[in-house]
Amino acid sequence: MRKPTRYVAKDGTVTWRVRFRSAAGTEKSETFPDEKFALEFCGVLKALGSARAVAWLDEHANDDGEYTWLTVDDLFEKWIEWKGATNKRGELVRVRSVRTINDYRRDYVNRIRPTFGQVPANLVPPGDVQAWVDRLITEVEPKTVAGYHALLHGLFLWGLHPNRGLVVNDPCTDTELPKRRKKAPKGLRPDEWQILHRAAQLVDEDAADLLLFLVSTGWRWSESVAVQSLAVDHWIDDDDRSHTYVSMGRVLRREGDTFVFVDDAKSAAGERRVRIVGPAEQMVLRRIAGKKPTDLILTTGRGTRWDYTHFYNRVWKRPKKGDDAPGRPRILEEAARLGLDRPDLTLHWLRHTHVGMLILAGEPLTAIQRRLGHASIKTTSDTYGRMIEDASEEGLDKVAALLAGTPTRAINP
Question: What SS3 state is found at 232?
């Protein structure tokens, strides 16, 4: 790649000159007041060729002939404006919610701007991106590092689009990201769940119903607390068997500093309909009795929606020293008294517990994928595949028969 040459005028003024051959084959040069501008032009020359590079340079010159350079900050602001586009009804068209926009800006300001914000976008060296990633590895988890890198990578890919032509290269393309080792999901054994549910019943009957729904469906908190009565479909068939299904297409989502109910799911696959049976079915039917179609099913004892922060701090976790409500029992505190001493237990364990029970019952991962609302079977397999310890006894018996040369009727179609 061409390198700029430094020139010092008689009055001491320093400039940087880049010589290159034009499309017509003649020798030309451009002079810049700063080395970084000259270096960026060299990069543009290499990427676009002389004719397009000169045109690009003209686009970046103001009325006084001075050059203005797109920094990474400038690139981000253009990208975030594009991401936040709305239609005539004021609805976001490229992201699901304002929260997504706020999260992008938060991550950019906290993790990308300090390193790259004022750097010209076309002068970000791939080596600096790698060094940035290597530094982040010492501060946060690999999955989080990959998320920050994806945001920076996305900015450059957007700017590289032919319709924009804001940048001429992507310094993130060859970054070596840390290996992400997915932790094995944690769940409860059936006997441990019974203790937890009993503890919840002693602390707060409405909270116990919520936990029962979570563990019986594998749904997320944001999905479960948003379920309305109209989402429940119940009937009795000709054999006097009860059928109860719950449809998921609504979540409780943070919008800025508040929470709102949104008719949406995490993905298209998240919009699903699942059957509930046993104690969970009886609980849901009990809770929808006498309610309007739009009423929430799982509420507090006052009939209001659950607030996660309040639930976690006042109902779920053990009180800490100095807690302003030490006399009120919490679910994990009561569970420990009953024999389940798991201070690290989280509500998300109930989702894992549901899957573990399905696996113990012999359900295939494809069925579990649909029930959980995963868009990809890979997500299900990567997360829960390790919970399948071995092939079934029936399957192993069939393999043994094949190896012995005595295939059975059950083996052959």
Answer: strand
Angle at 217 between CA 211 and CA 357, to 5 degrees: 95
Q: What SS3 string covers 57-112?
A: HHHCECCCCCECCCEHHHHHHHHHHHHCCECCCCCECCCCCHHHHHHHHHHHHHHH
The tens digit of pLDDT for each residue in 89-135 reads 888 899 877 888 999 999 999 999 999 998 888 888 899 999 999 99
CA distance 65 to 85: 33
193-231 residue pLDDT tens: 999 999 999 999 999 999 999 988 888 898 999 999 999
Instruction: Please give the pLDDT value at position 116.
Output: 93
Q: Average model confidence (pLDDT) for the chain?
A: 83
Nearest to 169 by CA among 228, 134, 227, 126: 126
User: What domains can you pick out in the chain, each with its CATH number?
Assistant: 5-59 (no CATH), 72-160 (1.10.150), 190-387 (1.10.443.10)
Model pLDDT for residues 126-156, shown as the tens digit of each residue: 999 999 999 999 999 998 999 999 999 999 9
The two three-digit tokens of residue 141, written as one number: 């988890």
What is the rounded CA–CA span in Å between residue 174 and residue 151?
Answer: 15
Q: Treating both helix axes as pointing N-terminal to C-terminal, what angle do 126-137 and 142-160 enclose, rounded to 10 degrees?
A: 160
End-to-end CA gap in the chain: 66
Tens-place pLDDT, residues 356-372: 777 777 777 787 788 87
Of the candidates 304, 300, 293, 294, the one whose C-alpha atom is nearest the C-alpha of residue 314 is 300
Query: Tokens 């032919």 appear where?
Result: 162
Residue 212's nearest CA partner among 228, 226, 224 is 224
d(CA 145, CA 142): 5
